[in-house]
Amino acid sequence: MVGIMTSVKENNLLNTVNSLYPTLHDAEKKVAEYVIKEYFNVIDMSVAELSEQCNVSEATIVRFCKRIGLKGFHHFKITLAREINNPEKTTHSPTIHLDNLAESINNIFAYKIDELKQTASFLDPKELQKCLDVISASSLVHFVAAGNSIPAALDGAYKFNQIGIRSIVNNTPEMQVSVAHSLTENDVVIGISNSGNSKLLLEIFEIAKKRKATTICITNHMKSPLSQMADIILTNISNEKLFFKEFSFTILPAIAVIDTLFLLLTKKNFDRSIQSISDREQALSDYKY
């Protein structure tokens, strides 16, 4: 809870709501969805008015506030007001209009930029340092993912191999599980899951734990089952529910986290990294025009 409170104080209340969304009860999710969409209006509402809009009890509103690390509804409104008045906070509307593409482009890019800024603010330097240390000392890095997170895993394995860090990725569950059973204590598993609830990744992390491999979780949800199982957690921020609450689609924040690791690892072992990149570029030169 301490970590959540810190994030809220740093003008990240809405991102905290997004991150904790999967852990909320159904009635609390109604409040979260309304707050995310209508935060400018919520700031002027009483607890009774908000409960009526969300079709939940006033007690649910108070529970929701406490679940996201605040003392109550009054504390919630003060924190929300501070965030809205933050000059760096985007004020674009979370809407997409096919009859106004210019406005839609501005809205989408505004929230994508905000995702990256907030992801940077959520990344813990101590956790990043742990990642650099274990990855640099590893014999193998196994990237695992499911669904639309697979492209991010492919990107990570490719980049790590470019700088001489032996990495693998498979896009079938059978191969991912099979590789997990051959891990050693010198290996690292990096699981990418926006929800942090993937049954496949939970199984792989459980196997990795038994094999004494180090597990790193890149996720949007800091209190998800996968986060709680991981040795190291790297939180990214997704504003996707501002556009479509029905499904997850963005991998940009996860790729930004991977890029951060890639650049820091390159700097950490600069000579080896540059030589490795040069060797690979030379080997692939025959395939280029």
Q: Largest sheet, order of strands side by side?
A: 2-1-3-4-5
Give me the secondary-structure category: alpha/beta
Biggest sheet layout:
5 strands, parallel
In the CATH classification, which architecture of the largest domain applies? 3-Layer(aba) Sandwich
Q: Report the strand count.
A: 5
| Amount of helix | 55-70%
Relevant CATH superfamily of the largest domain: Glucose-6-phosphate isomerase like protein, domain 1
**Span between termini:** 55 Å
CATH topology of the largest domain: Rossmann fold
> Which series of helices and strands comes N to C?
HHHHHHHHEHEHEHEHEHH
Mean pLDDT across every amino acid position: 87
Low-confidence stretches: 1-7
Write the layout of secondary structure elements.
Blueprint: H1 2-9, H2 13-20, H3 26-42, H4 47-54, H5 58-67, H6 73-84, H7 101-122, H8 125-136, E1 140-145, H9 150-162, E2 167-169, H10 173-180, E3 187-193, H11 199-210, E4 214-219, H12 225-229, E5 232-235, H13 252-268, H14 270-283
Parallel strand pairs: 1-2, 1-3, 3-4, 4-5
Helix pairs in contact: 3-4, 3-5, 4-5, 7-13, 8-13, 9-13, 10-11, 13-14
Identify the notable features of this structure and list them briefly:
Arc Repressor Mutant, subunit A; Rossmann fold; 2 domains; disordered N terminus; single chain; five-stranded parallel sheet; 5 strands; alpha/beta; 289 residues
